[in-house]
Amino acid sequence: MISIPWQGRIKIARRAPKYWSTGQSKNKQAWGTLVHDTLASIQNSSEIEAKVQLQANTNLLADADAELLLQRVTSTLDHPLLKGYFSGNAKIKSEAGILMPNGDVFRPDKVFFSQHETVIMEFKTGLPKPEHEKQLHHYGEILKQMGYSGIRKLLVYLDDEIKVNEL
Questions:
Q1: Are residues 128 and 158 in contact, defined by beta-carbon separation less than 8 angstroms?
Q2: Average pLDDT, the chain
Q3: 119, 152 in Cβ contact below 8 A?
Q4: Fewer Cβ in 10 A, N or C end of the chain?
C-alpha cells in the first residue's frame, strides 16, 4: 500500500534534451553537451567507436552528425597531451562528485589516478574564460586537501582545433 500520493512526487519532462535533435550540430551549446557527455563516458580509447555509436543511436543523430562526433572525440583523445591517459593504465573517475564538509559537491570531468600523479582534466566548449582556470585550480586544491600529490591540471578546449592548457 502506498501511503504518500505519487502525483506530487513525480515530474514528467515534456521535452527531450536539445541534443536529441538531429539538427543538433547547428546548436553550439547542445553540440558541446553531446561531445562532453560522450567524452565523459569513455575510459579507454578502444571504446571511442562504441560510445559514439551509442550516443548516435540514443540521440537519433544523422549519419553526418555521428561522423562529426566521432571525428571530434577521436581528435580530442588522440591529442599528444591527452592520449596517454586513455590507454587503460590509470584509474579514471568521470564526473565523480566530491562532497565537501559544508555540503557543496564538485564534479571534475575526469580525474586520473596513477602511482606517480593525479591528473584533473576539464573539458570546455566555447571561448576561454578566467573562471575555467579558477575552477580547475579549485579542483586541484580540493584533491590536495584530500591527500593526493603530483597534481596536474589540464584544461581542454573542444573546438575545431583541440587546445590543451596545462595549469
A1: no
A2: 85
A3: yes
A4: N
Contact 47, 18 (CB under 8 A): no
Per-residue confidence (pLDDT) for residue 58, from 0 to 100: 87
Q: Are 141 and 134 in contact (CB under 8 A)?
A: no
Rounded to whole angstroms, the Cα distance separating 134 from 93 reads 21
CB burial class (10 A; 0-12, 13-18, 19+) of residue 152? middle
Report helix, strand or coil for 9. Answer: coil
φ/ψ bin of 94: left (φ > 0), alpha (ψ from -120 to 50), beta (otherwise): beta
Of 81, 166, 158, 167, which is closest to residue 127 (Cα–Cα)? 158
- Helix (H) or strand (E) segment spanning residue 48: helix 48-58
- CB distance 117 to 152 below 8 Å: yes
Express each pLDDT in 8-59 by its tens digit: 665 555 444 444 444 444 577 788 889 999 999 999 999 999 999 999 988 8
| Distance in Å from the first CA to the final CA of the chain | 56
Nine-digit cell string for 152: 596536474
